[in-house]
Design brief:
One of its GO terms (molecular function) is RNA binding. By secondary structure, the protein is mainly alpha-helical. The chain is built from 44 helices and four strands.
Length: 1108
């Protein structure tokens, strides 16, 4: 109904509400029963365009007042059946005529009927037919309700009787709003599932949007604004509902797909539920788009929600160099046309032909000809012609389909299967039964091969070609792929999977429909490879399969070498050009490099800090080159930095304990030994390194039997190899001081004890290394003898440490006596005799110090003599830089060398103190429970009485006179003579009182400590006996279990595994450090016409060619 018709009746209807008589009637009304009843029957039959004039004429001539109730009920019932748009103007005219004639006696009650009709009802009591009928009437009533409101027929709620209003209207305080606002609100929220109200709202917006969105003459502004707000609110509700429904739809669809992928079939009824939910979502989405266009509301974020869902979930992407989608999925235009472009039979074949034909014997010959042509087809056009002739010749019948099924199933030539698959794809819409039958057969055959030790290539190939044409359902395809991956350890399954991907891998990897599922299953296979234990053959097959899917890129990132030519040349010269015969030539070349450049100095330091990059057999020559370079003025600090880096590398190796670095660690230890042999390293640093190698990582820095140490397990013998490597290459012809030899002898005993903390018996390889090492060791002029048991090793170590403790106690006593005599000298300056004795004591102290210094001086002199001899020999052998080396040998120490010596002395002093503290703690832990015995094998009285130690040292006994030794020194000559002082002398008396006082204080402290120690040890004894009993019981059970399980077999297996690891490490070392050829180019450096730039360029070219 257009606006002109509405405007024509709007003004008369408004006047009628105001009480004006605007309807022209007959001069006299007809009150006959027959005509009035006939008029009511006519209204009951329906109001429309056809009977509009007769109804208007009846309203003008008939009285109708006595029949008002019948008229209202009949008219209301007739209005619910008005569904055609062409009947609406007639209905408006008829109802307007009744309103203009009867006014308030008619229209409020008609409004009241509409208000009660749209009120919510209990739909549970209605049948489906009644629900449908009620909804169709509701649509008609809502439309007429808005039409009557626009025409001025229906006004606000106040026009209706207040006592008969429905509940949803009676509770509203604002009675001045239009009736349509309240009725429409009740209709929109009254539907249970929301789909019916959605349809009503859609029709309402389409018909009356222009009267809601902008001001107009038919609706009051207040009512229009209320209607607009109501539609805005409903649109927002619809958007939210759409997003929720879409989430449910996506979740249900995803669960159904996942379940189908796992089971290989779609659950019955699931597709119907998903389809119904999809229709509901589409309806809501359509209304949201309509509301967005008309009202400007927001649209549901369905696409954005999917993106957020993917981003918020945990998703692992397979990133490879060549996994990007190619420009063409099939590689060529012909292949693309074959697999992607198909003719549309509906446009080529008449519909009358595309029906099932009756069986005819004459068609059998044509079917045979058709199948032969299909087998011989070479291009896509040939297959298309076969498909067209299949329909043109009328071969589509049950017999033909059965014959084709048998032919496709029995074919053995695999190149024909892609023609079959294209033929089926072209006819996919017209022969679905045949395609389903073939899919079912292929699924059954492939399932049998997966679970059994069987493999038929033609089944796999045909299945893959059908996947290329998207004939196989997704859930069937990926169910088979998933089964193959989960049962990958079954024989032939990896071969089936590889062949399947060879056939249809491009479709699976790069097609959007399959790519996500394929990547998920490939991740599953990668996880199984890392978590499940496969056979070696299966593991390699899986690795090759993954590599075939995502091969490494041929293009490599160009590595830019920013090093200078000098750096490259030095690296090539030392690491690749060094041999046992040309190291002097290399040394001469390095000396002629520009060593004023810091970058060259750093490169030299880096080269000589990495001995693992040099051939293992050339490490001695490598160290010799370092020794000679360290004498240069510009490289005075080189030795310090290299040794510091070497110590750091050894410590890092002990921390990481990576078996892949075993060869590197062996090279570092060998390099350290060679540096010591060349007198570039002091003995105390070597000893500290030995102790660090053995003790690092152990509790309290002390290995014990049965201790759990992650860095040095009891079954690991690599540290033993490191120590053997170090000591076997140690040159014992180097002259060592007495203290160093004693320390080394003590380490032999400690290392012997350490060996007994390892799992016994030792492997044969380690035993051989140890035997070689024992042969080169001497202790007190005799070959070193290894302990027979763990207890013997402890006792020998204790005895050695106790003996060392006696010597240290004697030295401490002498130092204490010297200090007291110095104090006496300060107090008795006027006593000549005492001063003379004080001078003697002072000389004694200096003499005792000079004795130790003399020993060290002698050692240093001997070492210097050896160094001079070696340097002289090197000077004689080196023809290149004879004069320069002679000058460098006689040069004074630089400032850096002096600082280095001072640093080494401090380091030696600290290491000595740490070793003494460690041995003292071990010595104290060996005290008995009685608490009254000895410390480190020395009587307690001797340790607390320095006089007794001095008297024993001088071979005299205490009497009325006390014996002292007077020591004097003149240059390197030392003289000593004995002195007897009377006991009543002041010096002797003071000295005796001080020693007695110290003795009493030590005895008091000792008694307190022993009391506490006795209490502690008594408790410890109980615990020890309990632990001993538990240990014996555990040991017995453990021995029995080892016997039952075959201890010898376990040890033999461990030995073979370790041998295998050692051989692999050796092979890796040989591969990384090949033996250099002896035929290196020798340079005549004495030639005056030597072109040095040409030599460097030639070396760089050699380096580049070697790398290439």
């Amino acid at each position: 109904m257009n606006s002109e018709l509405r405007l024509a009746v709007f003004s008369p209807n408004q006047k009628a509400w105001n009480g004006e008589c605007v309807f022209a009637t007959a001069p006299q009304f007809d009150s006959s029963l027959k005509k009035n009843v006939a008029f009511i029957k006519k209204i009951r039959s329906g109001i429309g365009r056809d009977n509009q004039e007769s109804l208007l004429q009846g309203i003008k001539s008939l009285s109708l007042e006595k029949y008002m109730n019948e008229l209202l009920s009949t008219l209301s019932e007739a209005l619910t059946r008005v569904s055609k748009g062409s009947d609406v103007p007639g209905v408006v005219n008829v109802v307007s005529a009744l309103h203009q004639r009867f006014s308030t006696s008619f229209t409020p009650y008609l409004m009241l009927y509409f208000a009660h009709f749209v009120a919510p009802i209990n739909e549970s009591k209605l049948s489906e037919k009644d629900k449908t009928d009620h909804f169709s009437k509701m649509k008609n009533m809502v439309r007429l309700l808005m039409e009557f409101s626009l025409c001025g027929l229906f006004t606000n709620v106040e026009a209706m009787p207040s006592d008969q209003l429905p509940r949803y209207m009676s509770s509203i305080k604002a009675k001045d709003c239009l009736m349509i606002v309240l009725c429409l609100r009740e209709v929109l929220r009254g539907n249970s599932d929301g789909t019916q109200s959605l349809e009503l709202a859609t029709q309402f917006l389409k018909r009356f949007s222009e009267y809601i969105t902008g001001p107009n003459e038919f609706l009051e502004e207040k009512s229009r604004v209320l209607l607009q707000k109501l539609m805005f609110k409903y649109a927002d509700y619809t958007v939210n509902t759409t997003e929720d429904l879409y989430r449910k739809f996506s979740a249900k669809k995803s669960r159904a797909e996942t379940k189908a992928l796992k089971t290989g079939k779609v659950e019955e009824g699931t597709e119907d539920e998903i389809g119904e939910l999809k229709l509901v979502v589409e309806k809501f989405q359509a209304f949201c788009e309509l509301a967005a266009d008309i009202l400007g509301t927001r649209k549901p974020e369905l696409v954005e929600y999917e993106t957020k869902k993917l981003e918020s979930g945990t998703k692992v992407e397979i990133v490879t160099n060549s996994a990007t989608k190619p420009d063409s999925l099939w590689g060529s235009d012909d292949m693309t046309k074959f697999y992607e472009e198909f003719p549309d039979l509906s446009t080529l074949i008449p519909k009358s032909i595309m029906t099932d034909e009756e069986d005819d014997e004459s068609k059998g010959t044509r079917m045979s000809e058709l199948l032969l042509r299909l087998d011989d087809a070479l291009t896509a056009k040939d297959v298309d012609e076969v498909a067209l002739d299949y329909w043109k010749w009328g071969l589509n019948n049950k017999s033909s389909q059965n014959r084709m099924f048998v032919h496709l199933s029995r074919s053995k030539e695999m190149f024909k299967f892609r023609n079959y698959a294209r033929f089926l794809k072209i006819n996919q819409k017209y022969i679905p039964e045949l395609i389903e039958k073939i899919i079912e057969q292929q699924d059954k055959n492939l399932r049998f091969q997966i679970h059994n030790n069987a493999m038929t290539e033609k089944v796999i190939y045909f299945f893959g070609e059908m996947v290329n044409f998207k004939l196989i359902p997704v859930y069937v395809l990926f169910h088979k792929v998933r089964l193959l991956i989960l049962n990958i350890d079954v024989s032939h399954n990896i071969d089936i999977l590889s062949m399947l991907f060879d056939t249809c891998g491009r479709r699976l990897l790069y097609d959007d429909e399959y790519r996500e599922h394929t990547e998920e299953l490939i991740r599953l296979l990668s996880n199984l490879k890392s978590t499940r234990k496969f056979k070696m053959v299966d593991s390699q097959a899986v690795k090759l399969f993954l590599l075939s899917l995502y091969p490494t890129s041929v293009k490599r990132v160009a590595v830019v070498d920013i090093r200078t030519d000098e750096e490259k040349f030095m690296e090539f010269l030392v690491r690749r050009g060094l041999t046992s015969s040309n190291y002097r030539t290399i040394l001469a070349v390095l000396k002629r490099m520009d060593l004023t450049e810091k970058i060259n100095v750093k490169q030299i330091e880096h080269i000589f800090s990495t001995p693992e990059d040099v051939n293992y057999s050339l490490i001695p020559e490598f160290a010799k080159v370092l020794q000679q370079l360290g004498t240069l003025d510009n490289l005075g600090h080189l030795r310090v930095h290299v040794i510091d880096n070497l110590f750091e590398s050894i410590t890092v190796g002990l921390e990481n304990n990576d078996y892949r670095q075993n060869r590197v660690r062996l090279a570092q230890v060998r390099y350290l030994t060679e540096l010591f042999n060349l007198k570039m390293l002091k003995a105390n640093l070597l000893l500290s390194t030995l102790y660090r190698i053995v003790c690092f990582g152990h509790q309290n820095y002390y290995p014990t039997k049965g201790e759990m140490c992650l860095n040095d397990p009891a079954e690991s013998y690599f540290r033993v190899r490191l120590v053997c490597e170090l000591l076997n290459h140690l040159r014992f012809d180097r002259k060592m001081g007495k203290g160093v030899r004693n320390e080394l002898a003590l380490f032999y005993l400690f290392f012997d004890y350490y060996l007994w903390t390892k799992v016994q018996p030792l492997p044969m390889e380690i035993t051989g290394k140890l035997e070689e090492m024992w042969q080169s060791m001497e202790v007190d002029g005799e070959k070193f003898r290894r302990s027979e048991s763990y207890c013997e090793a402890i006792e020998r170590l204790k005895a050695a440490m106790k003996a060392k403790g006696v010597e240290e106690a004697a030295e401490e006593a002498v130092e204490g006596a010297d200090e007291e005599e110095e104090e006496e000298e300060v107090e008795e300056e006027d006593d000549d005799e005492d001063r003379r004795f004080d001078k003697g004591i002072a000389d004694t102290e200096s003499e005792s110090e000079s004795e130790t210094e003399e020993d060290d001086d002698e050692e240093e002199e001997e070492e210097e003599e050896e160094e001079e001899e070696e340097e002289a020999e090197a000077e004689r052998e080196d023809d290149v830089d004879n004069e320069s080396e002679n000058d460098e040998t006689n040069s004074e120490l630089t400032y850096e060398e002096k600082e280095e010596e001072r640093f080494n002395e401090d380091l030696d002093r600290e290491l000595g103190r740490l070793r003494l503290e460690a041995m003292a703690s071990i010595k104290n832990s060996s005290l008995g429970t009685s608490g009254a015995a000895r410390v480190a094998g020395v009587p307690q009285e001797s340790l607390s009485n320095p006089t007794s130690i001095l008297s024993k040292a001088n071979g005299s006994t205490t009497s009325k006179t006390s014996s002292f030794t007077f020591v004097s020194r003149a240059g390197k000559k030392i003289e000593a003579r004995g002195l007897q002082l009377p006991e009543d002398a002041k010096f002797t008396r003071n000295y005796t009182e001080q020693t007695d006082k110290a003795k009493r204080e030590k005895e008091a402290i000792k008694s307190i400590v022993l009391i506490c120690l006795i209490d502690t040890m008594s408790t410890l004894n109980v615990l020890r006996y309990v632990a001993l009993g538990t240990g014996v019981l555990y040991g017995f059970v453990h021995v029995q279990s080892l016997k039952k399980n075959g201890k010898k077999q376990v040890e033999k297996y461990q030995f073979e595994q370790k041998q295998k690891l050692v051989e692999e490490a050796k092979n890796q070392w040989n591969l990384q450090h090949p033996v250099k050829s002896e035929g290196s180019v020798k340079l005549d450096l004495d030639r005056k016409d030597l072109d040095w730039a040409a030599v460097v360029d030639q070396a760089i070219k050699t380096l580049d060619s070697a790398k290439a």
